[in-house]
Amino acid sequence: MAQNYTEQAQVQDFIEEMVLEYGFSAEYLQQVLGQAKKQQSILDAISRPAERVKPWKEYRPIFLTQQRLDKGLAFWREHEQALAQAEREYGVPAEFIVAIIGVETMYGGNTGRYRVLDALSTLSFDYPPRAPFFRSQLREFLLLVREELFEPTELTGSYAGAMGLPQFMPGSFRAYAVDFNQDGKINIWTDAEDAIGSVANYFIKHGWQPEQDVAVQAQLNSQAAEQGLTGSLTPKHSFKELAAMGWSTEQTVNDDAMVTAFKLAAEQGDEYWLGLTNFQTITKYNRSEMYAMAVTQLAHELAQQYRD
């Protein structure tokens, strides 16, 4: 194994691509990638077998804690003006922005300790199973540090290269991060206002519908109605079709609405839910029904306590 990434043929190919397609200086890329360090702990983390998928009754308590609520309420009060502005401009409720940042990093308390350059280089050149994806993110990272005039060795994030309070990958940063406080730079690492505006922008660009519900609980008239369960994050049925199978809700849902129908193993038994368009938006942030439900329920609890 080469000690320096620039000694690897695949890295030289990557450099050549960046020079030809994006106009980088080869000398600059040699210098930057020459400082990248392989991190075995990153490879260990990403290669670790996935833990048993927790049922909802075990997953929910991880995120719906009083500590996370207390910190979220403090974050909301501290950044009340920015959150209200984001809600006005983007139509994304403050509580959902707060909940995303809370679930992702505990309001900035855990944004990751790895240099993004090390994380993306390690996964691009020493982790073949997902090398194409991480190489694309390394490309996005180099473009964003050029555009934003960042020092590439100073930016930190998760072992996968996700950055800042909202844990944006470099591609998401370039596409959705905004200078919300208009101070001339985008800073999602320590500037909560930019993080707030960036989350709101991400949501609206991924189809968030202002003033619409996220998920509604449903009832089934028989076990046979379980045939309506979606089985994936992509909606397969309209609400009208599910109603014909035996699904019903106390809240009004448009007959033509395409919904994600899923079941959660809760403390008191199985719960059935319908995820609407805004629910599907949250799953674009993290492709998990339970993640989206954790964000949704944390948001609702935050809003209730904030307004009490």
From TrEMBL:
Superkingdom: Bacteria
Pfam families attached to this UniProt entry: SLT_2
Xref: InterPro entries: Lysozyme-like_dom_sf, Lytic_transglycosylase_MltB, MltB-like, SLT_2
Domain spans labelled Transglycosylase SLT: 8-299
N-terminal signal peptide: none
NCBIfam families: MltB
Protein name (Swiss-Prot/TrEMBL): Lytic murein transglycosylase B
Gene source species: Thiopseudomonas acetoxidans
Lineage: Bacteria, Pseudomonadati, Pseudomonadota, Gammaproteobacteria, Pseudomonadales
Gene name of the record: mltB
